[in-house]
């Protein structure tokens, strides 16, 4: 029979948030999660913000005290994501949009519904006068997915010869840590933020996932397949190490 203290431990994940004032005067929101499998207090920072994870029996006060004690570290980590956070669009004011490793000219006009289109002089956004932020985010997401599918359409035929089968289907979605994945049914998933990256890096991720149709693991045989199809893969891997967080942060700021 379990002891009485085990019965008191929460068995579900609990989430809330609390404000934390930094030494520079900023007040940030800390997302707090009480997790039944957590063993210690843990702070993390990514493009989504600051998160604090608590073990089942840790008090809320001890968690807030822990975050306060590490506020200098938090400020330093948040500074790493500041450039990414700055890339969100201000309707009617922003004049550039990140696309394929560059900043392209951006124009605004009023329209009956939210729509983002690429043209000869850059990108145009049509937006109703009182459109909610979610409408612009959806339009941007549709735009980036269309651009990503166009890119894949230009590359895919080059890499299909030699594969045991083509991918079953292709889908784009925001991914927290990965850039791509291959499902057992042959579906290739690609991170939507790849459309913001330089094209050669995006192409490498596509090749990487296609090579998993040959080898499901990351064995030496798998990397030989990648090398044969995309010899410059190491440079693109280094690019993601240097720019990956900023890319994902920019994507989150644009379309959530």
Summarize the entry for a quick read.
Helices cover 40% and strands 25% of the residues.
Structural account:
The protein is of the alpha/beta class and 256 residues long. It folds into two domains: 4-85, no CATH class; 141-255, Metalloproteases ("zincins"), catalytic domain (Zincin-like, 2-Layer Sandwich). 40% of the residues lie in helices and 25% in strands. The strands form three sheets. It has a four-stranded mixed β-sheet, with helices on one face. Strands 5-6-8-7 form a four-stranded mixed β-sheet. A hairpin with a 5-residue loop joins β1 (14-21) and β2 (27-34). The radius of gyration is 22 Å and the shape is globular. The termini are far apart.
Question: Can you lay out the helices and strands and say which pair or pack?
Answer:
Elements lengths: L3 H5 L5 E8 L5 E8 L7 E5 L2 E6 L5 H10 L1 H15 L10 E4 L2 E9 L4 E5 L2 E6 L5 H27 L9 E5 L6 E3 L4 E5 L7 H13 L8 H10 L3 H23 L1
Helix pairs in contact: 3-7, 4-5
Keywords, separated by commas or semicolons:
single chain, alpha/beta, Zincin-like, 2 domains, 4-stranded mixed beta sheet, 11 strands, disordered N terminus
């Amino acid at each position: 029979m379990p002891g009485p203290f085990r019965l008191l431990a929460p068995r579900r994940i609990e989430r809330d948030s609390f404000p934390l004032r930094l030494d520079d005067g900023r007040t940030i929101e800390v997302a707090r999660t009480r997790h039944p499998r957590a063993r210690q207090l843990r702070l993390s920072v990514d493009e989504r913000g600051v998160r604090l994870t608590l073990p089942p029996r840790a008090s809320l006060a001890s968690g807030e005290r822990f975050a306060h004690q590490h506020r200098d570290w938090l400020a330093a980590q948040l500074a790493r994501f500041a450039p990414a956070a700055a890339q969100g669009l201000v309707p009617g004011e922003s004049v550039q949009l990140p696309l394929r490793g560059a900043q392209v000219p951006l124009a605004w006009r009023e329209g009956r519904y939210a729509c983002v289109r690429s043209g000869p002089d850059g990108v145009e956004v049509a937006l109703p006068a009182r459109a909610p932020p979610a409408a612009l985010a959806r339009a941007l997401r549709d735009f980036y997915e269309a651009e990503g599918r166009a890119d894949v359409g230009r590359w895919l035929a080059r890499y299909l010869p030699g594969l045991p089968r083509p991918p079953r289907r292709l889908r784009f979605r925001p991914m927290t840590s990965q850039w791509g994945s291959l499902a057992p049914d042959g579906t290739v998933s690609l991170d939507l933020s790849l459309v913001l990256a330089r094209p050669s890096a995006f192409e490498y991720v596509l090749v990487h996932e296609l090579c998993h149709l040959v080898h499901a693991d990351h064995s030496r045989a798998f990397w030989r397949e990648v090398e044969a199809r995309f010899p410059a893969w190491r440079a693109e891997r280094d690019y993601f190490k240097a720019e990956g967080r900023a890319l994902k942060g920019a994507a989150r700021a644009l379309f959530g």
